[in-house]
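Objective 1.3, modelling of assemblies. Example input:
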Amino acid sequence: MTTHVPIVLLGLGTVGRTLVKQMLETRALHRDRYGVELKVVAIADSQALYVNNDGLSAESLEHVVRVKQDGRSLRDVVGDRPSGSLALVLTEDAIVVDVTASTRTEGVLREAVACGCGIVMANKLPLTVDWHMAKGFFAYADLRHEATVGAGLPVISTMRSLLDTGDCVRSLEGCMSGTLGYLCTQIEQGVPYSKAVAQAQASGFTEPDPREDLGGRDVARKALILARLAGWPLEMSDLSIEPLYPQSLTGLTVEAFMTAATSLDDVYRERADAAARKDQVLRYLARVSPEGGAVGLTAVSRQGLLGSLQGPANYFGIYTDRYEQEPVVISGPGAGPEVTAAGVLGDIVDLASRRIR
Amino acid sequence: MTTHVPIVLLGLGTVGRTLVKQMLETRALHRDRYGVELKVVAIADSQALYVNNDGLSAESLEHVVRVKQDGRSLRDVVGDRPSGSLALVLTEDAIVVDVTASTRTEGVLREAVACGCGIVMANKLPLTVDWHMAKGFFAYADLRHEATVGAGLPVISTMRSLLDTGDCVRSLEGCMSGTLGYLCTQIEQGVPYSKAVAQAQASGFTEPDPREDLGGRDVARKALILARLAGWPLEMSDLSIEPLYPQSLTGLTVEAFMTAATSLDDVYRERADAAARKDQVLRYLARVSPEGGAVGLTAVSRQGLLGSLQGPANYFGIYTDRYEQEPVVISGPGAGPEVTAAGVLGDIVDLASRRIR
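Predicted structure (tokens):
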């Protein structure tokens, strides 16, 4: 017997499209292993909504993915006519999946909580707004959000499991940005800051404006999500953030910034050299505890797991009552559409397999 | 509303006793978070069985733990009269928990499968017998066995999640023995083999006869469990095992072995030195792929996560289609009653929270 689990998918960027492909590829597996079939009943991008209560066919989904891949909108598929109502598909057995990077999904997500839907987020924004707005999500038992931190790495599920067994998280530390990890390794190997940034940008490791990564806010959001999951009601303002460029370069165009970045080469060269003299290396580290946290360039021992981290790999160290001296460590590639979509799909399967008993 | 989930606990060694304490301590948490109450309806050691269909009270459980801690048997609590029948408590909603290190639980576990119970194992033996006997367990959807490998570290759950999202495991590598990790670090730091073994024994890191750890069979069992979970129907005979002492020292008493061990000091000193000349360090590494595997002392680069591992910490690297170049890494303390019991409890809570919908 196969149970159909309705899926409402918000967001059709690279992660959303990869997720659709993975869902189609794993249909037989979920049917055989859990007796579950994921049935996409609604998909949305920023411009349109496509609803089909009977579930969109594989052909329809593949068509939508192709259209989006061509840079067009979902509107080109559904036209201007409303194809259905989101309210009608927000049933208790449905799972709402937010793979946008938008604040505009918040209303739907709150409705989903009210309806008792499962919720899966890759979107960090609803979880990093002011605590009085976000706490409802953290208190909601049927929310999963593995892909918000470390993409497919099992960071959130590990913390949940520790907390479920009565352990108490004391502090967290991590290298949560592949881009900034790459940058640290390059500088360590003698590449000037400006050149390393340019390389990262050219390789597609950064946002079109590299300052969005260098600013550290995205890392801080991840640290805040982990802190709140640990049970600490912190705000973004409780985290100090060291951006990897000075305030004075904020107003420039991207091109002008890339040119001006050469003025920072010596600064970061000297910091790396100072660390090396103490047998240390620089890591863009986030550290957080119940009192607050700090995100920034930190010198750590060259020995040890953190110091031996190379390139874009992520690292998470979780210190708890039971793992007091030595943390639980999770490490590996923490970005990219394939592993991010897999993190989302893992959450969907977990919730779906719980919905069939 | 609280749903009672009957628990059948097999084994009252240190892990079993720690588990009972953790279950009692986390009662309120499970009630509040999942609406679940774990109700121990039967416990057993190697000599007796204590059944109470209404659930043993906290006082009874604490009494049993004290009796066992004093080195006495459960028989001293229940007497010789049979206190009830195990068959009657193996209901579909029950969870059978095997924290023994015995082959004698296999019959009950097979009955539990037939009854549709949830099953949680810390016991490696039922999963490492011949494949035709073990495969029924691996195929059973309601089996969890996190604590069989890496104690409380999320190794099994991570592999399950990767497989659930359609990823394919290609190979696995790991340092799966805290004892042998400690030994490697000591030898690396110049301590002679025989002294390092004696220290490990004195610190309680080894079995009373250290050859049980040094022989590598326990590591091979863990590697076999991971291989089978990955979908490869391997046998123990498909793994080559390098014991850290020669065949000639097998027949000796423990005392005679400890004396004779000095004859091995030069052997391991030379291997460590040879590795160091290539900027490598020795790790007791298990490597396994669909074709088979090897467990033994391996020289690895001093750089990188594996080389930077210190002391008894465990390490697991999982290479998959999606994590092809860089593996998912899970590392941390992988032994001890607290974290092992927590691994078991995490599995119980996972199954219990699925049983209430």
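DSSP finds 17 helices and twelve strands in chain B.
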